[in-house]
Amino acid sequence: MGVVIVGAGPVGLYSAIALARRGYQVTVIDRDPGPRDPQWSTRRGVMQFHHPHFFREQVREALEAEMPEVWAALLRAGAVPVTTPGPRPEPAGFRCRRATFEHHLRRGAEREPGVCLRAGHADRVLRARDRAVGVQVGGYDVPADLVLDASGRAGRLTWQLRRPAEGGDCGRAYVTRQYRLRPGAAEGPTNAPPGLIAWHRGYLAIAFPHERRTLSVLIGRPSSDHRLERLRHPAVFDIAAAAIPSLAAWTDPAVATPISPVLPGGRLYNSYRGQTGPAGRITPGLIFLGDAVCTTNPAAGRGVTTSLLQARQLVTLLGEHGRDLASCALAFDVWCERAIKPWFADHVRWDTDLTRRWAGGDIDLTRPLPSDLIVAAAEAEPALLPAVGPYLSMRALPASLQAAEPTARAVYATGWRPPLPPGPDLDDLADLITAADTAAAPATAAPA
User: Mind listing the pLDDT tens digit for each residue in 65-123?
Assistant: First the structure.
């Protein structure tokens, strides 16, 4: 069976290799020729390519199950496996830059018999008798029995064939910068598998260690508050990082040196779209995959995980349904509704409530608590940990926290609130930036 995959990101490349190893002839179409230099390549149209990532344990499991040589290559490139904190540590995932991850995944696809990587712009899906029969690329037809749209949330190739997405803007904006630790310098503190995560009053600060002593630093803020927009300027970013103790420990000039400009993030969305079109029907021979189905606020690091979970399930369903691609798409849609959409709904609720709290609102005990507050309450009530742990590792769906919600509610009813890390709040940080701008402004000459 011939398969065309539109999109050579993680889910497109992974699916190509997995399907080729089952006898499919796979062509991968992407307008970008792919990252050739893992140190600093670009991926046109992929805003998040050089932003920080943490790869969960499910990603390692997916690689080892289908392409262990890619996992071995990542380890040789310096990827760092990490475990959960606590007295009973368990594998939690691995740390490395997305550019490194994609570089080795693409090399695996390039070496795979049965996979053809083709650079070009996918213009439209070819259809005959109301089914997909290939893709037109740069004016030429690429026929296929199955078309997989892995072009991402913003892909326009198939938008007319689908219902509008559920969800919307997360209400967040962020900037990041990459660094390299100086020779002999010790790493900064960490408090979670991705690195160090600090939820301040009104903003988020994270330090992500990566491979070979590289790291990324992130500052996230409400997108409606424009006072921190100047963080995209290196001098301003340096001032903010030095003022936030959790970041200063990683970015002090004696500890690390920048290896990238400040990278502004694009608008962040929570979105979900199923397999059906405007009339409620699927297009036989066309299946949507990865971010084309679900995107979530990257703060929880679920994107690559949910995408590869989809890819593994689709490969299984294709084996079960054979050439009955319509029934395969419907079965995949049902599975995504059950196994993927809950993560979208969880983040919508989390982000909505966090926006309200960042604007000065207190925890609302008249409504069910969002998941982030149930997780935070485990700091005061360790009895919550058996429920919180599987949720955090994405081994249990968000609904698994419902049984723990009354206990978390009781914690907050006592007046306890999650302790804030040391450092400025959002207003203080904005004042620092304003003061820096004032100091940098040229003095106005006094009148004669």
Answer: 999 999 999 999 999 999 998 778 899 999 999 999 999 999 999 999 999 999 999 99
Upper half-sphere CA count for residue 368 (Cβ side, 13 Å): 12
Whether the Cβ atoms of residue 437 and residue 233 lie closer than 8 Å to each other = no
Pairing of strands 131-137, 140-143: antiparallel
Instruction: Give CA–CA dist 397/317, Å, rounded.
Output: 21
Is the pLDDT at 22 greater than 80, yes or no?
yes
- Give the residue-averaged pLDDT of 220-242: 92
Q: Pick from 195, 219, 198: which is nearest to 207 by CA?
A: 195
Q: What is the pLDDT of residue 4?
A: 98
Domain covering 2-168+268-339 in this structure, CATH number = 3.50.50.60
Q: Please, which residues have CB within 8 angstroms of residue 236's CB and are 6 or more apart in sequence? A: 230, 433, 436, 437
Which residue, 16, 6, 30, 26, is CA-closest to 120? 30
Give the CA count within 13 Å in the CB-facing half-sphere of 163.
Answer: 16
CA atoms within 13 A on the CB side of 329: 25
What pLDDT sits at residue 444?
46
d(CA 38, CA 52): 14
Residues linked to residue 94 through DSSP beta bridges, in sequence order: 55, 81
Read off the pLDDT of residues 245-296 as tens digits, 9 standing for 90 and up.
Answer: 999 999 999 999 999 999 988 778 899 999 998 888 999 999 999 999 999 9
The alpha carbon of 299 is separated from its chain's Cα centroid by a whole number of angstroms, namely: 7
Tokens 């694009």 sit on residue: 266
Beta strand 25-30 with 2-6: parallel, antiparallel or unpaired?
A: parallel
Angle (CA) 281-283-287 rounded to 5° is 110
What gap in Å lies between CA 360 and CA 356, rounded to an integer? 7
- 234: Cα within 13 Å, side-chain hemisphere: 7
Write down how long the chain is: 448
Residue 322's SS3 state is: coil
Look at residue 39 in the predicted model and tell me its pLDDT. Answer: 55
Q: Which residue, 61, 52, 339, is CA-closest to 210?
A: 52
**166, HSE (Cβ side, Cα atoms, 13 Å):** 14
pLDDT of 45 strictly over 60: no
Query: What token pair was written down for 68?
Result: 């262990």
**Which of 186-209 are b and which e, b meaning 16 or more Cβ less than 10 Å from the residue's Cβ?**
ebbebeebbbbbbbbbbbbbbbbb
Contacts of 235 (CB under 8 A, 6+ apart): 436, 440
